[in-house]
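diguanylate cyclase (Thalassomonas haliotis), 474 aa
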Amino acid sequence: MRLIKSFQRSMFLLFTLVVIALSYGFYLAISHIVVEQSRIHHQSVAPVFSLINDELMYPLHVSQTLAHSKTLKELMDAKVIDRGAITDFLGGLEKNLGLSFFAASENSLQQYNSDGSSFELTPGKVEWYFKLSATEGNFFAKLGQREDVHLYLDLKVFNDKKEFLGFVGIGKSLRQFWQTFKNHKQVFGYDLMFVNNKSEILLSSDENLLASGNRLVHLQELPWYQQVEDLAVRGESLNSSVIHIEKEEFLLSEIYIDLLDWKLYLLSPLKSRKADITRSFVINVMIIFALIVLLFILGHFLIRYFADHFQSSLHRDAMTGLANRDLIEQRYEKIMAAGDALSVIMVDIDHFKNINDSFGHNTGDQVIKQVSDLLKHSVREHDLVGRWGGEEFILLLPGANLSLALAIAERVRILLAALKIEHVEQQISVTASFGVTYSELDIELKKVVEVADKALYQAKEQGRNKVCSLLNIN
């Protein structure tokens, strides 16, 4: 019963470990996938902010600083504009900062460029100047120059009296932007496009979407836009939308650039992302599988352990741990099947009833246990000691002839006679009678035991504490 309860506790513990291991394994798998998704997303988006800063924010901040330059304001506020001084000033900035600058003067209606050139701001010819001068706001991002389209960042300039002096700004060719974005795509694998508040695509890594002197491409013209048009109509963000372009999936990311009132769209192919996430998933599944295999192996050995102990307990005497009759008969049959001869010794504790009557059954049980221990340690390793019933024991000695069996029985008899069992304040002496027989015949165990019993009876008849033998099995 104790073994069954131990088995139940162990199996419950194993089941609990399996549940915990699987739960933790799935938790790790999901966590790793989420982390992997976040890592991939961060890896793809983070460089974009650096790109925006380098290509747009930095020129914009430089333009803002230039619009507040005291030197430039003095040059533009002069009644007579010193063309050389302005172009030298702008040329120095270009040399130091690597950007192309211009200044459009209200006083002279001239535009001065950092490359040293200049031209007149003629109404009807240079439309942007007069159009933006009349427009509210101090900052404008626009495209210009039909032959080689540039992005211009224009800022109005005012003197200390808040009088309008003209524009300063930076111009950069769209081809330069495209080359930078193209290089960025080769490294990070996604397309990008900058769209203004009119849904016009101003900058892009796709050469086919670059503005020309004739027209700007609108976002609504793109084939995939229909897939997200409902979201756009409802004014919802297109961020994290999945779209299909030529049977391939892309993740659409949307970033709002507040200073420019633009939106940046990233088109990231999901094929590579799926490969990374799949790899992470496979690794975690393998970890979970390894946990399951380890737990299965643990369970297998645990079940085998208890199965062996169950099997052993079924064939063992509960009190002494010696072989019971079932195991004795199984071992005897194996010896016979192997064709081995054997000797059998029957052992009976002398006057055992008197021990129970005089000292109690607990003491009687103690005597049986100590006799059992002595028998187990007095025979050969391959011999079998079993409890036949009550105070009677049996020894199977495979391969032992009668002489050897008699010698073993005599040695055990002497050891038993010398055994002293402590009881309260006195010692109990124990003796036993032995019946020995030998057989080379393949016959039933009960017939061999009958002969050994007859020899045992003779030992008792001769006064007990004796060893007798008998060979007349037939």
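Residues 333 and 445 are 8 Å apart (CA to CA). The radius of gyration is 51 Å. ok done for today
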